[in-house]
Amino acid sequence: MAEKNTDPDAAVLTQAEIDAEIAAIHGEYRAQRDAGGQVETNARLNFAPYRSSLLRHPTKSLHHADPEDIELYSPAFGHRDVSPLEADLTIQHNGEPIGERIIVTGRVLDGDGRAVAGQLVEMWQANAAGRYMHKRDQHPAPLDPNFTGVGRALTGPDGEYSFTTIKPAPYPWKNHHNAWRSAHIHFSLFGTDFTQRIVTQMYFPGDPIFDLDPIYQSITDQAARDRLVASYDHSVSQHEWNTGYRWDIVLSGSNRTWAEQEEEH
Questions:
Q1: 26: how many CB neighbours lie within 10 A of its CB?
Q2: Is 250 in a helix, a strand, or coil?
């Protein structure tokens, strides 16, 4: 039986209609690629199933930024400014957060596989109920007073980073009727100032919502999508304490990790 939209506050299209749009776009891409066309490793700026992708384009002319002003607000890179405790999101409050405790670790690499040390890595995420600690997130899931969902770290000599956190849950969004986002963690990496920044997302293996998520599916090449999915690593798991995931971030080259060009959900 076809899904019916009975919610007057929801977007008009159903998941089935969004699925059909995604399938048609991916089919066209595969045909062009198989005919010798270019492989797409980034998300399309205009991806019709992701309705608000139209809003990602600037509507006004760009303005010149004074480099000296930018430096006043540039990231902090000294070890005295980024505490190792900031990488553990489970100890930031008076009590323990609710949910599956996990460690996410990996390396930041350049296109030739060389480690990128001293890189500022920020991450943010929803809680175990799929809700962000943000005033704009008002969907009816509980907030966790012991989980803010934000952390940062500096990469080590081998480009390694590690965060202890709680596994996030999927959450609804208003792209279409009964729309849900795959569980994910946002990552932000800085170069030497705020003008050198990439933002990306890490997903979890085996998520049943992958095929239904227009943001994940806006990357039309399957291999590029796969690079956003972490691997479960039992060597990162700890006895009676946490499970573990490994995810490397490649900054350039043909195997680079997809990065957002604008703020995402």
A1: 14
A2: strand
Average pLDDT across the chain, whole number: 87
Q: Letter for the amino acid at 116?
A: V
The structure tokens 């670790």 sit at: 105
DSSP string, 57-101: S-SS---PPPHHHHHTTPPP-STTTS-GGGGBTTSSSSSPPSS-E
Average pLDDT over residues 241-250: 96
For the question of whether the overall pTM of this predicted structure is more than 0.70, the answer is: yes
212: helix, strand or coil: helix
Catalytic residues, by residue number, are 132, 171, 181, 184, 186
Count CA atoms within 13 Å of residue 98 on its CB side: 9
Q: What is the pLDDT of residues 152-211, one digit of tens each?
A: 999 999 999 999 999 999 999 999 999 999 999 999 998 766 667 888 999 999 999 999
Amino acid 230: pLDDT: 98
The distance of Cα 247 from the centroid of its chain, to the nearest Å, equals 12
DSSP annotation of 56 reads G
Q: Backbone phi, then psi, for 78, in 5-degree steps?
A: -75, 145
Alpha carbon distance 143, 137 (integer Å): 10
Q: Tell me the two tokens of residue 225.
A: 């999508």
Residue 92 backbone phi and psi in degrees, to 5: -85, -5
Residues 6+ apart with CB under 8 A from 45: 53, 56, 57, 261
Q: Which of 104, 96, 85 is nearest to 185 (CA)?
A: 104
